[in-house]
Amino acid sequence: MTRSFEIRPDLDEGIDRKVLSQLRNRFLTLNEGRLARANEGLSTRQQSVLALLPLFFHVNHPLLPGYVSGATPAGVSHYEPDAQALAEAQRLTRSFSYKPRRGNPPQPIHGIFLMGSLGTLAQADQSDMDVWICHDTHLSPEDVLELRKKCQALETWAATMGAEAHFFLIDPERFVVGERDAQLSGEDCGTTQHYLLLDEFYRTAIWLAGRTPIWWLVPVYEETRYAEYTHTLLSKRFIREDEVLDLGNMSRIPPGEFIGAGLWQLFKGIESPYKSVLKLLLTEVYASEHPQVQCLSMRFKQQVFANNVDLDELDPYMMVYRRIEEYLRDRGEPERLELVRRSLYLKVNKKLTGLPRQRTTSWQRLLLERLAKEWKWDERQLALLDSRSQWKVRQVSSERRALVSELNYSYRFLTQFARTQNAISSINKRDLNVLGRRLYAAFERKAGKVEFVNPGISPDLAEDTLTLVQSPNKREPGKYQWGLYNGNLGAHEWETFAPIKRSRELLELLAWCHRNNVIDSSTRLALHPGTSDLTEFELFNLQGALQHSIPTPLGMVHEDVLLKPSVPSEILLLVNVGVDPLKHHKDLNILMTTERTDSLSYAGVRENLVLTFDQITLNSWNEVLVSRFDGPHALLDCLTELLNNVPETSPKPVIRVRCFCHNRAPAIAQRVEELINTAQLLLARNLNHRYLIQVQYHYHVLEMTPGQVSHVAIDNLTALYQYLGEELPTYSPIHLDPQALDDNDLSLIIPHGQPECIQVFYRINEPQADLYVLDEHNALWHQRLPYHDESSLMMPLQRFLQSLMYRRGALLPLDNPLEPSSLDTLYYRITPDGAGRARRIEQRLAPVMPTDKPFYDVQAIVEEASPGQVSVTLYCDGMEFSELEFGEQLYSVVARQILDQRSEPQRYRCYITDLDLSGILGDTRGQTILFLRYKAELERSLNEAMDEA
């Protein structure tokens, strides 16, 4: 274009109407060029839509598209349709004829403008039309509603013409004060962006019809006096009021708008980063200049005033790029600048490699070629970018690093800017928190998390053919790793290739492939299982289980969910992946037939078939996490972590258990599922349950405190009795797994436990008997005694328990109705007698004490002599024997005393009939198990002394 003088209108020196007319014509000339470029990229039918829009708002004719009713406001300021528009209208409706409106009819439509990428470097076949309809502020709500209906009808009609159009009703007076169409503010992340939207309008909008913006006529150096300047233009009639519309000025942008714009672009950038990079960088440029922001609309206006109206350099995308380029060069950040260039090139999406599709080279391609030459891009780089639709994991992973780094940098910049400007409102503080969590969930690396490598970079990462290999880990002797390779590689071919990805565990690798869609239904997978037992059948089923549990692509997480900590929503447990639990039997050619089919204690050798767990979790933030459990306690470690991670409140996660190993897979999965379901039910009761499970000859207890589930491993039956005999702060029921302790008396005793009572069980196996007590907190005491008859077996224990209840009752205040003065004692006999398997428990009446037969009273008082040391005093029929007097000979002296009092010649056991522990317990009541434990220890010492006497 020819260059002419710069226009500098000045209020003080007087304003020439001719100069103002020249200015307006410069904007209109530029506008004409942009409109021509927009039409160049449209189909014939789409061009018709653009040409007809002003006519449809100018006349209200029932034969034309968009007609609602005769009451719909119509009339565009200073508009008269040209021959092209009338011809297009008659092609649509032959019977339509235009009659110019006579007199001075109302013209409520003040201006029609086209926004968006049409007419810009980034215009594409799928670009939509965003149309602003600026209307008279005095229209009634009913009139506005009529117009809105017309807009909706025109959107529908445009779609039939192959055009996606969106109409926004703008009341200029309301717009100036920040009030605007709800649809228009729907894309700004909840934080107002009035001035940034206006900035975009002034530098990108294409005028279609009606009045022109008065902003065009205000010099940049007068922007701070905008109100005064425009008032002068209108009041002194330099321009007519009905020729212009006023949407406001760009003298100041509040800092909160940069935060809102950055939030929204970051939000969109998580899924479509290339589209957001340019706008994010522009927001950063603006914010870095605050409060003296040199926004692009002002640069645009300055260039028009200077008559630098080069269509290429004033293209909206070129202006954005040039501004960012200038900023990043000043900062010395070439890597970020290269990312911006790639983003612009991919946004424009006009491939420079290969022959152009059209015979004539488009202006966009010519401009892009000029830029690529300026950037010194070679054919190789262009070919790489042009093949983006074929990019696979390696290239996508490299690009992801740059994009994620940029998004994270923008978030940190935005947060810091908000702090330094003290511009964090309660709204955008919440938005910042949500966005930070969105970025964390999408991109943050952490142990066990499956990385998502393709945030809108390539349309498809699926590979045609892959090879999956297990091989020794050279860095860790004795360990193995899994590798994924391109192509169908033979038995040692893969050693000369670099894998796409390595992982220690198979499921970590398969979950990564699934999350990133590297393997799809058409991928052919070659398998080299190495030392594992993995088969193609199992591999196929593992992939199916992943697809069923974690359907991809994952949707957008609602912000209310992100404001809460993440919780599991889907859990997939895979048992024995690549492991055959009975492989050694197959190798030895042993066929196992057995009635013992429990997967935790299989066959006569009680084989554990549940060996490894791979847990894949999809949480509420759409993070996919993988964890592995193996080793001797894999089952219990997995259950413990699983139960601790399940939220206490609803909704609970869906838990699926799958097993595809070579032997007994369905039974294994069902067994694990039963354990999980039972544990969840126990946990939900919130009663501090203990869940007792047997694995082979070992025992495991899950202590079910909500949020603090813990696992206790117990090696053998002796250690189990010791565990069950420990004191407890409150009643703790035990749930016994049906397959545990199946040949032990405990399998019948444990399910009988009840709170707030003492339960005594006995089983006779002559010449001995087993005595069991479950106390008020469900602690178990066990003792094996010589058996003579039921009375001699039970009476000493009954006397002791009665003495204990008497002592407890004496310590309680009389007016405390909440605390029972004594606990009921219930008696049960386990049958049948003998050493065989117990079958039943029968309740018995309490033994009756004979009144005609006196008993020998042995009382014990245990006190704390010094820290960690106790002192015992025994009373035999009221006679005192203390350690102070007899020292280590106490039990020998008391044993002789008891024997001297007996008239029968045969030896029989001595029992403690009463025990006082107040010297140890103080004012606390003390659990029954503690008294029974001291009783047993004292009786052991006494009876050993009697045997030696």
From TrEMBL:
Matches recorded under NCBIfam families: PRK09450.2-3
A matching Pfam family: Adenyl_cycl_N
InterPro entries, alphabetized: Adenylate_cyclase_1, Adenylate_cyclase_1_N
Name assigned to this protein: Adenylate cyclase
Residues in Adenylate cyclase class-I N-terminal domain copies: 20-216
Annotated organism of origin: Pseudomonas abietaniphila
GO terms of biological process kind: cAMP biosynthetic process
Source organism, top-level taxon: Bacteria
Single GO term (MF): adenylate cyclase activity
